[in-house]
């Protein structure tokens, strides 16, 4: 990785952090629990890395990757499903 | 060509995540937002499966099926009252997944690791492992498997500091000698231990902060693994979640008027023996549900203050029934929600939503505090610290400075409490001794059911 590429990565990282601060501070306290479980599900994005590791033809890394895929999917599916369960309950008068 | 398709899909995923999170700013759009976000995840997963590096799909399918199955099972079976520990546990799985991604990358590149590879791998391993063991510990505390009270021992902070130094030192050594597997494993193990030791001294009342912080860590772990793989989708998404966790942590700390450092290292909520003994010396008069009904029946404004005790007793549906009956008799019923009521931010809101209480009736602390003066009854169900005036007038109290719900301004305060034991934070509440306070001892659910039957 060249320094230029690294700098672009840092750019993206910093902008994403600022964007995160911006969006989240507008969420009302009523929705903080679903927000947490929802963003929790999003953090399961690490499944992308796990899939790449798992699909490798190296025996050792693919087994570690397989476990990582399973763990990340628990996070993803569990997170989204539980968030939907909660949000379904929010209603007006 | 294929590369471009994958990267464009990642861009669409990232946009869907951002839009989805943005739609969380109103209960009307939140559900659709969650769906957008899930759709973004589906796109990201499908796009990744096209990656040239993926040769064998058997293990992938196995992992996807097992993980999805367990995840769905957890989501369907969990009770709303258990939400804090489940969110904690799910965070932990995400953290461990990131740590494993780092380990797999280490094994794949071994022994030809650049400085950049080693640095990002070690950072991911560290954050991921801490997230995992810390989350599992928090889960154990919230489930009651480990004591919810802060666990402290001599030289606690020094020991933690030494471990941290060991991790940093080991990391630097590994940068110079990336082929040293022993150090790689040692860093992983110390990180796991550190995660446990950082969470065990944290008391139950501080759990909302720690759950938020772990949420942030799980995002940062994902973000760090994005740096390993130079994958923008992972970096953006991980950073979003990391930032969201930090914001929530700040909100929680502000609601307790404490700094993050204080929460992390303060071992708050350790029961002060001297106040306990003092509390035993005075007798608190217990009232019966019949006494409470007399007051409730003539009330025109009742403000219900729910706390963790409501969640423990699973009394949310009974409370709604009680509120309905009071409304039928012409009273106005409002709910006052303290930002740190329960064990995670918004915990009370989801419990009351489950019991079909419309969200317009739930008021935040700043919106409701001016109304207590007008209220005939403040009905405190399983809450203690968030109503404790010691936060305002006793500078020695551990909760001094925390903004509270000013229930003492109501004409009558009815406390439902399991026993005379101090609350989770281990602090006695002087409101119990006021003449206008009625104490109803017993399980919150039993007491509310009795009130409901009497009102009928």
Biggest sheet strand order of chain B reads 3-2-1-4-5-6
How many domains would you count in the coordinates of chain A? 1
Amino-to-carboxy terminus distance of chain B: 71 Å
- Given the C-alpha coordinates, what overall shape of chain B results? elongated
Structural classification of chain A: mainly alpha
Number of strands of chain B: 6
The beta-strand count of chain A equals: 0
Quaternary arrangement of the chains shown? heterodimer
Greatest chain-chain contact: A-B, 82 and 111 residues
The helix fraction of chain B, in percent, is 55-70%
Portion of residues within helices of chain A: over 70%
Low-confidence stretches of chain A: none
Summed up, the helix count of chain A is 4
Number of domains of chain B: 2
Give a structural overview.
The complex is a heterodimer of chains A (93) and B (456). Chain A is mostly helical and 93 residues long. Chain A has one domain. Chain A is flat and about 55 Å long. The longest helix of chain A has 31 residues, at 59-89. In chain A, helix 2 (32-42) packs antiparallel against helix 4 (59-89) and helix 3 runs antiparallel to helix 4. Chain A starts with a helix and ends with a helix. Chain A is built from four helices and no strands. Chain B is an alpha/beta fold and 456 residues long. Chain B has 18 helices and six strands. In chain B, strands 3-2-1-4-5-6 form a six-stranded parallel sheet. In chain B, helix 17 links the parallel strand 4 and strand 5 (412-417). In chain B, helix 12 crosses helix 18. Chain B is elongated and about 80 Å long.
